[in-house]
Amino acid sequence: MIKKAFLYFRLAFTGAEKNFTSGSINRAIFMLSVPMILEMIMESLFAVVDIFYVSKVSVDAIATIGLTESVIMLVFAVAIGLSMAGTAMVARRIGEQQPKEAGDAAWQSILIGFVFSIVVSVIGIVFARDILRLMGGSEALISQGYGYTKWMLGGNLSIMLLFIINALFRGAGDASLAMRTLWLANGLNILLDPVFIFGFGPVPAFGVEGAAIATTIGRGTGVLYQLYNLFIKKNILGIHRENLHINLELIWRLLKVSFGGMGQYLIGTASWLFMVRIISIFGSDAIAGYTISFRIIMFTILPAWGLSNAAATLVGQNLGAKQPNRAEKSVWRCAHFNMVFLFILSIALFLLAENLIYIFNDNSAVVGYGSSSLQFISMGYVFFAYGMVISQAFNGAGDTRTPTIINFFLYWLFQLPLAYFLAMTLNMGPNGVFLAISISVSALAVVFILAFNRGKWKLVQI
After folding, report:
1. Bigger pLDDT: 310 or 14?
2. Among candidate residues 367, 391, 385, 200, the one with its CA nearest the CA of residue 293
3. Which of 73, 82, 115, 220 has the greatest count of CB atoms below 10 A from its CB?
4. What is the 8-class DSSP label of residue 456?
5. Which of 15, 23, 8, 45 shows the shortest CA–CA distance to 303?
6. Which of 452, 233, 165 is nearest to 332 (CA)?
7. How far apart are CA 111 and CA 316, in angstroms?
8. How does pLDDT run across 114-170, given as a tens digit for each residue?
9. CA separation, residue 269 to residues 69, 154, 407 (Å)
10. Where are the alpha helices (DSSP H) in 361-429?
């Protein structure tokens, strides 16, 4: 039994299997989700290590990251939206056994992401100070941290391409290649973080700005590795000379799918942005506590996204192979596994919240806000487990419109008013924001389940 389990793990780790339209569904989930979970663990590990080093600089340095991330999430939203379209399109073409068309979709996705990132880079470099000021940062915080914001937004091309190309690999079923890319990028980030933050040898101490420099170098290296595998090595998904053209019709099809994906995450991101803005009313300690707790939350949630991404690939490939019932069964299996995983984690977070925050900062106010954030938000984990898998299933089918509508109503028309009401009207402070997050993600999951059971996602053509 142990030998067989080790064999399966090795196959999943190396990416020996890439077609998941036949055979055991549980095996398919395992082969896809293992590298995806390992990929997400590295991403979440970097997030925690990064905030650990920055927390040694100052509270304002932590708050700078929190404010900048609230804005950089808009870049992530667009990258993830384009990633959804790329994943769905590539997975469908691979399921239909059309590798040339899959390469076309990959190249056009990269072109779209490149153009958008250039615009963001210019804005980030020119208006870094103004962005932090708009988010409620103090003048002292802006003076210390604007370099971090300039590097993160100015170097967003590495973020954009890393997200998009890894999503293309996952859509093709090559999750292990996406995993290796992120391990390279974030492993380098972790090694360079203390060098650029605190200084080493000829490298001066850049403080919080050093964290952004290390991130840009690490992610940029990961992108170079991705391009090598796309253009030179050419595995199951490759970009050849015949793919290198501008296809306006395909770009428009990708954009139509990605608009829904962008809408989902822009809606969710804008909601989080306003949440941070509400929290900033209560000072840097509240922002710092929330930022640390958010990094810990990402450490637990990102592995769960591995199962969710597996569901998206399985849906896309099986719809391409004309097997909608297998696609549906795969989604429910992924959701059940995810629920068990997050239920266990929610108990651990609730019980150990204060100790976990204390690892990163011993300021009593920061620990108090951070532990409250962890406890309140973790209470919604069980429901969120289903919501995150099913939303990705819609996206894998190319139906990005349904999740966009659901997100709009649940985040903007429900979560935001609830957060403001609890925090300001009922005088709950930041705890009101944390509680509103838990309530809204639970409601979101219920609505997703009801929409998924209608089955209209099976009929989407892309």
Report:
1. 310
2. 367
3. 82
4. G
5. 45
6. 452
7. 22
8. 998 998 888 888 888 887 887 777 777 787 778 888 888 888 899 899 989 999 998
9. 10, 20, 10
10. 364-378, 381-396, 401-407, 416-420
What is the mean predicted confidence (pLDDT) over 74-83?
82
Burial 293-312 (b: 16+ CB within 10 A, else e): bbbbbbbbbbbbbbbbbbbb
- DSSP annotation of 461 reads -
Average pLDDT value for residue range 83-97:
90
Maximum alpha-carbon separation in the chain: 62
CA distance 138 to 447: 40
What six digits make up the tokens of 326? Answer: 């297998």
Mean pLDDT of 12-26: 72
User: How far, in Å, CA of 2 to CA of 349, rounded?
Assistant: 30
Instruction: Decide: 281 and 292 in contact? Cβ < 8 Å.
Output: no
Q: CA-to-CA distance for 302 and 355, rounded, in angstroms?
A: 21
**Which residue bears the tokens 């391990």?**
183
Give the list of residues 6+ apart from residue 235 with CB closer than 8 angstroms, or none.
Answer: 172, 174, 177, 229
Sign of CA dihedral 139, 145, 151, 157: negative
What the block records as the tokens of 244 is: 């290198």
Which amino acid, 263? G
Query: How far apart are the C-alpha atoms of 330 and 297, rounded to whole Å?
Result: 26
135 DSSP assignment: T
3-state secondary structure (DSSP) of residue 24: coil
Least confident of 29-33, 246-250, 307-311: 29-33
Query: How high is the pLDDT of residue 281?
Result: 86
Question: Within a 10 A sphere around the Cβ of 201, how many other Cβ atoms?
Answer: 6
pLDDT at position 445, please?
94
| Tokens 């925690």 belong to residue | 48
Q: What is d(CA 23, CA 416) in angstroms, rounded to the nearest whole number?
A: 45
Residue 49 has pLDDT above 80, yes or no: no
Distances (CA, A) of 166 to 63, 78, 255, 332: 29, 15, 18, 24
